[in-house]
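If your schedule permits, I should be very grateful for your opinion on a structural question. I have a record of one protein: its chain in single-letter code and its fold written as discrete structure tokens. Kindly check, if you would, that the fold set down in the tokens agrees with what the sequence suggests. I remain grateful for any guidance, and I place the record below:

***
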Amino acid sequence: MWKTTIILLLVPILIFSQDNIKFSETIIKEDLQKHLNILASDSLEGRETGKLGQKMAAEYIMNHFKDIGIPPYKKNSYYQKFKAESDRHICKYNCENCDEDFITKLFKKKRIVKGENVLGYIEGTDLKDELIIITAHYDHLGKHDTLLFNGADDNGSGTAAIMEIAQAFMIAKKEDKGPRRSILIMAVSGEEKGLLGSKYYTENPVFPLKKTVVNLNIDMIGRVDYYHDTTNYIYLIGSNMLSQELHDISEKINKEYIKIELDYTFNSEEDPNRYYYRSDHYNFAKNNIPVIFYFNGLHDDYHKVTDTVEKIDFKKIETITRLVFLTAWEIANKDARIIVDKKIIN
């Protein structure tokens, strides 16, 4: 009799322990491809912050949040609007074939750019006052004369990923299996202009930074870089900079469920490439919020007009997106908040 009782008690625990896998499997490459085909289409004209294409991308992301059941975070708005000064008008890497007059025109003065962060807030249950923020920048370099920068990998890939992560968490919530801590899925703009959208958020936080547990940032996850001959890897940057516990959780989740190579080649504040400082996670790290930056590294099409959808490996995006979701799920549902045991070195 007692054996039967134990078995019956274990069944719901075992079923619940598999919820993370069940909801991660709602993230599929077909949906990622659908989103990326729109985000990196010619009609969005490279999504340059402040331009029509960026506004169209913001509306597409907002409508996705609305469709999957995420309410506006305030009144009727999903947007956190900002304006900031920037002297980045087109990346210098694109100007190898540009004449000097063209370059001078682009870089001679600073401009005010106006952008929007798109916020999808998923309220948690018993630990709802604590927050996990998952980010990806959805802006890119835009259209300049005859040059159109679609930005499929940079960063349409990450944007499609966070849209699918939002949907996975909402499916769980609708089945009464939603996260204990709240989740903020935030598509930021202004990254290519100097990390402006994430900077604005951390200086004008919608939710208290002291209650923000972690930032998981996705920027370029759909290609293979110069140093790998397989898709079965991802660079992780920052995972142990502020919290050894975050690093350990990340390793555990990958070992148990995903089993890809976690490459820490660039995981250093002294890395000459300075990747730790070059994407939106750094504005959170500056505020002593633990971060992980997911990044596939540079390739021949980085910041060029040739960064297009047909070169994307959607199976790789699916794998990395599931890894991020499962990591977020673990952090969102653990009893204790992850420990911050280090300080940022500015």
The first strand starts at residue 79 and ends at 86.
